[in-house]
Amino acid sequence: CQFWSQVNKKYATKVSPFKAKDLNLFIKIVEPLFTLPLLVLNLLPHRIIEGYRKHMQAFFQAILETSGRKVVVDSSKSTWTNIGRPIAMKKICGFDLKLIHLVRDGRGIIYSRLKGKNMLLEKGIKTNKKNQVGAFYAAISWLITNITSLFVEYFYFRGKVLRVNYEDLVLNYK
């Protein structure tokens, strides 16, 4: 894609002496659920903080310059691997963020998980067994993710979160 090729070229010129490929490494260290306490308590090593800041600021600046826009929409899912992203982008990078929290009814997630994985279903492979372990995992994951999202909103983004019910959005998309 021409757009992302231009973004990557601009980004690469901004991050020296760091290497452009290090962005994913910093994201994997700073944003996951298991490092969230370190992020919140300011216990991440200084070189990690500085690397993350340099890379994320350069990356988003490259997006803004390439697009010619004033706003970037990051549609990252706040899964276990990226749940700390909003806090990190605010605390470390100083970005002014507004969040949209799209919440799906937990029962829908469990039902979906019982049906099977999307990739298998797309290939026409149906699972006859009820994936009860997967459904339990999905329920726990949904609970942890939504509690963490409430924590993030309360302590970092009061008045800057729009919570949207997924089912309402699907029914009233206009």
Offer a concise description of the structure.
By secondary structure, the protein is mainly alpha-helical. The radius of gyration is 19 Å and the shape is globular.
Features:
9 helices, 174 residues, mainly alpha, two-stranded parallel sheet, 2 strands, globular
Please explain how this structure is put together.
This protein has nine helices and two strands, in the order αααααβαααβα. It is mainly α. A two-stranded parallel sheet has the order 1-2. α1 packs across α4. The longest helix has 25 residues, at 132-156. The chain is globular and about 50 Å long. The model has no long low-confidence stretch (mean pLDDT 88).
Topology at a glance:
Elements: H1 2-14, H2 22-30, H3 36-40, H4 46-67, H5 85-91, E1 99-103, H6 106-115, H7 118-122, H8 132-156, E2 161-165, H9 166-171
Parallel strand pairs: 1-2
Share of residues in strands: 5-15%
Structural class: mainly alpha
Low-confidence stretches: none
Run of helices and strands: HHHHHEHHHEH
**What's the alpha carbon Rg, rounded to whole Å?**
19 Å
Average pLDDT level: 88
> How much helicity do the residues have?
55-70%
The tally of beta strands, per DSSP, is: 2
Strand order of the largest sheet: 1-2
N→C terminal distance: 29 Å
Give the number of helices: 9
The largest sheet, given as strand count, sense and whether it forms a barrel, is:
2 strands, parallel
Shape descriptor: globular
